[in-house]
Amino acid sequence: MSGRFDSRHPLIGLMDEFHRLGGRLKSAFAEARRGVDLGESEMLVLTAVVEGERAPTVSQIGRSLGQPRQIVQRAANALVAAGLIETAPNPDHKRAPLLTATAVGTALKRQADARAAAIAEALSAGLDLDAACRLSDGLRAFRQQLEAQLRAGGADAARPKGDT
Q1: For residue 61, how far is the Cα from the chain centroid?
Q2: What pLDDT is attached to residue 94?
Q3: Third-level CATH fold of 25-123
Q4: Which residues 6+ apart lie within 8 Å of 150 measured at CB?
Q5: Which residue range or ranges hold the HTH marR-type domain (predicted)?
Q6: Beta-bridge partner residues of 86
Q7: Mean pLDDT score of the chain, rounded to an integer?
Q8: Which helix (H) or strand (E) holds 85?
Q9: How confident is the model over 7-28, as pLDDT tens digits?
Q10: Would you list the domain boundaries of the chain?
């Protein structure tokens, strides 16, 4: 790491850069979301449902996004009311239904993706897209390592030593 705060722990620097980059990208891609008339929370939940490897629950989406379950639930309720997602029985949990995308929800997500792709194309001039791919792959692998460590150690893995 190089910069003004070289004494910071690398994970703190990573978190800072992640938030700064996220803010810049969120601003740049806001137009894609506006084109489908969904709020940020609704778009995040729709993306999690449409792009998920399997149908998620509200709690799973909340954990994945680092969002409170209640916020995800409100967004999911709005998406159900709009006919963009549906709930399905969850064989693993009676009270936590699975969320699945409707054809309309998937089409709306693809419409937003097309707008986002146009924005990305306009932004990409002069950027090292190979580096972006490597960074994305690296972040995914790092997130998976972190998730595995947190699962193995539970909440204790994220608690500083000496705290009770």
Answers
A1: 8
A2: 86
A3: Arc Repressor Mutant, subunit A (1.10.10)
A4: 157, 158
A5: 31-132
A6: 100
A7: 89
A8: strand 85-88
A9: 788 889 888 999 999 999 989 9
A10: 25-123, 125-154
- The Cα angle at residue 95 between residues 40 and 56, in degrees rounded to 5: 40
Q: What CA–CA distances, in Å, run from 124 to 24, 27, 84, 129, 131?
A: 14, 15, 31, 7, 12
Please determine, for residue 164, whether its predicted confidence score (pLDDT) is greater than 80. no
What is the chain's length?
Answer: 164
Q: How far apart are CA 72 and CA 107, in angstroms?
A: 21
Tell me how far apart the alpha carbons of residues 25 and 47 are, in angstroms, rounded to a whole number: 16
Phi, psi of 159 (to 5 degrees): -95, 130
For 126, the token pair is 């002069």
